[in-house]
Design a protein that fits this description.
alpha+beta; six-stranded mixed β-sheet
């Protein structure tokens, strides 16, 4: 039986995070460790990654172009992706991550508003890794300026370690 590449990547990610968990616990809530991250994503824009960097000065954490190879099976990416991830680390709260993203994007909100309108989809993705099967995902209303101003959605990525 062959294990899909996406499953292998997720397992590798979990293995890398386990030793870090013992070294530096993240947010503790009733002795359960929650690790958070957040990213701003724009999908299906076409080949504009370089244009975004030129217009805003922001370099994508990850960027993929439609048609690029997707693994070893010969399939290709169906759409482009431009992703800016918060560098604050897993100890920071969702609010801190989202506020960092907005601090970077706010000076260029008009350009990003245009890009979001042209994109197939755009969102802020909140991530949480925990030992608990019950995630704690909360963001203060003041941290959601990025969602309101750019008129984008929220996505949640929860992983049980």
């Amino acid at each position: 039986m062959r294990i899909p590449t996406s499953v292998r990547r997720r397992l590798a990610r979990l293995r890398r995070r386990r030793p870090q968990e013992r070294k530096a616990p993240a947010v503790l809530q009733s002795s359960v460790v929650f690790r958070y991250d957040a990213s701003f994503r724009i999908g299906g824009l076409g080949d504009v990654q370089d244009e975004i960097e030129t217009l805003t000065g922001l370099k994508a954490t990850r960027a993929f172009r439609a048609g690029e190879p997707l693994g070893l099976r010969g399939s290709t990416r169906k759409e482009s992706l431009w992703l800016l991830q918060s560098p604050l680390g897993e100890r920071a709260s969702h609010d801190e991550h989202v506020n960092w993203l907005w601090t970077q994007i706010a000076p260029h909100k008009d350009q990003f508003r245009k890009l979001v309108q042209e994109a197939v989809w755009a969102d802020v993705c909140l991530g949480c890794i925990s030992e608990s099967a019950y995630p704690v995902l909360s963001v203060e209303p003041s941290s959601l300026d990025i969602v309101r101003e750019l008129r984008i959605g929220l996505a949640f990525n929860f992983t049980v370690s």
